[in-house]
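Task 17 of the worksheet. Students: predict the tertiary structure of the chain below and write it out as structure tokens. Keep your answer in the requested format; marks are given for formatting as well as content.
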Amino acid sequence: MFLNRDLSLKGYPKTYMAGQITGVEGYIESTAMGLIAGINASRKLRGKDFVPVPENSAHGALIKYITESNPEGFQPSNINFGLFSSLKERVKDRKFKRRLIVERALKSWKEYLTRIKEDE
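Model answer:
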């Protein structure tokens, strides 16, 4: 794919991408990529280290998808449960499994926000 994990272009690390051009589908997803690109560009300009978005958060799952998918036959995607990494334990009940995935995603997202705020 053409993006680094910080949403900068491979070969042009000072250029960040956001919105649908990144390979996400949907208003919320496009806005989310803009948020992350903005955070990462701001951190780079201020000399701060890159802090990767956790892959088991919604933002991180999308970033993993758009940066690591096979470019052949790539299809833009909304966020969906299929993009999240598997749980450590096997859970048969679909609703309960999704609840656990959401709880893990929210916890990871909060930890990410705390980490980037600590650098301010």
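Marker's comment: The chain has a mean pLDDT of 96. The chain has one domain: 8-118.
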